[in-house]
Design goal:
Radius of gyration: 20 Å
Number of strands: 24
Helix content: under 10%
Shape: globular
Structural class: mainly beta
Largest sheet: 10 strands, antiparallel
Length: 360
């Protein structure tokens, strides 16, 4: 594998977009949104990603073969933020790392932890070639340190190959403290809601494999109709296999997907197959991500079908997850790495992907 690495600086990002490097069908373009946030477009022959290299390394938006992948939202651009709710319009963000999920009234952590908007200390661009061909990758480093408390180094990255409409999201974290460190990580990928889309998964749509969240988080105002729907979904979650009832996803619905089958390499695969035949795809190792969460919301402000959120925990906040035994611990000096392959599949590719899932 050959590669060349280029260090980037915040001043490399200006209001006028300019190409940083190119090779064949892949290129990287730097720009700055009118809000002041730095943007980096990674592009190949079939589409592009827009990454926020200095703000949590979010993937703000993606489009392949003319199909937009990102959730519907009210944000016309990313906004400077310290919490994800201040700029909740991206395709993907790193949720965690010391805490995760929706905090209860007794929790003290922010929604989805400290990592989503973390300011990167260093950013690099890599042009290279691996077993899958030529690629372009953005890498970041963020050191979290407190005088008394956790100390870790996070290394997120996003890799796009020249001929692929799927891309790899990675998170590598190392505990730099002399004390053990709690770890809660979710790769939070917010795909667009598309009416009539069908969830394809290597597990049956039964109550023991697809469990609706029955606790109501603080940001949701339940109605009798909403609570009745939760009871119905607890008994028969197959109603959510096809997303054809948008009026039933406001307030949100959250599910925990259990016991997903995996291939010989230990990876599970899921897809949201659109009514037109194409689809959104997710692949990840179940050994690293023992939990899978599903989140669907269709309101006047947001339209999202996060059909597979790979995670080390469930999203009910630090205290609840600690009580359930879902908080992982990194010993002093220990590292943990997570990788997810995510993206778009044209109709023929989606049909093959669905058949592969059904064989698991």
């Amino acid at each position: 594998m050959s590669q060349a690495t280029f260090s980037l600086r915040p001043q490399d990002f200006t209001p006028l977009p300019h190409e940083l490097l190119a090779s064949g069908s892949i290129c990287a373009t730097a720009f700055r949104y009118p809000s002041g946030v730095e943007g980096l477009r990674l592009q190949n022959a079939r589409g592009y990603l827009e990454v926020l290299p200095y703000m949590g390394q979010m993937i703000w938006r993606a489009e392949f073969d003319g199909v937009k992948l990102t959730m519907g939202n009210r944000f016309d651009m990313p906004r400077p933020a310290t919490s994800i709710v201040q700029t909740y319009g991206c395709l993907a963000f790193h949720s965690g790392l010391l805490s995760n999920g929706c905090p209860s009234p007794q929790d003290t952590h922010p929604l989805h932890g400290e990592m989503p908007c973390a300011p990167m200390d260093r950013v690099s661009l890599v042009l290279g070639e691996d077993a899958e061909g030529a690629f372009i990758e953005v890498q970041g480093e963020y050191e979290y340190i407190m005088g008394f408390g956790a100390h870790y180094l996070a290394r997120p990255s996003v890799r796009l190959h020249a001929a692929d409409t799927r891309f790899q999201i990675k998170m590598d974290v190392q505990n730099l403290s002399a004390a053990p460190m709690d770890l809660m990580y979710m790769c939070h990928v917010n795909f667009a809601y598309r009416p009539g889309a069908r969830v394809v998964q290597p597990a049956p749509f039964t109550a023991d494999h697809v469990q609706v969240r029955q606790t109501v988080p603080g940001h949701v105002r339940p109605t009798p109709d909403y609570l009745a729907l939760i009871d119905a979904l607890a008994a028969d979650p197959s109603r959510m296999e096809v997303l054809d009832e948008p009026e039933r996803y406001d307030p949100e619905q959250v599910f925990y997907v259990r016991d997903l089958a995996a291939d010989a390499q230990g990876h599970t695969h899921l897809m949201l197959q659109l009514a037109e035949g194409d689809g959104f795809a997710m692949s990840y190792p179940v050994g690293d991500f023992p939990k899978t969460v599903r989140w669907v919301l269709v309101s006047g402000d947001a339209q999202v079908a996060a059909f597979a959120l790979p995670s080390t925990c469930e999203p009910e906040g630090y205290l609840a997850e600690k009580a359930k035994g879902n908080v992982r611990v990194l010993q002093a000096g220990e590292r943990a790495a997570f990788a997810v392959r995510v993206g778009y599949l044209a109709a023929a590719e989606a049909a093959d992907f669905a058949r592969m899932i059904q064989t698991l």
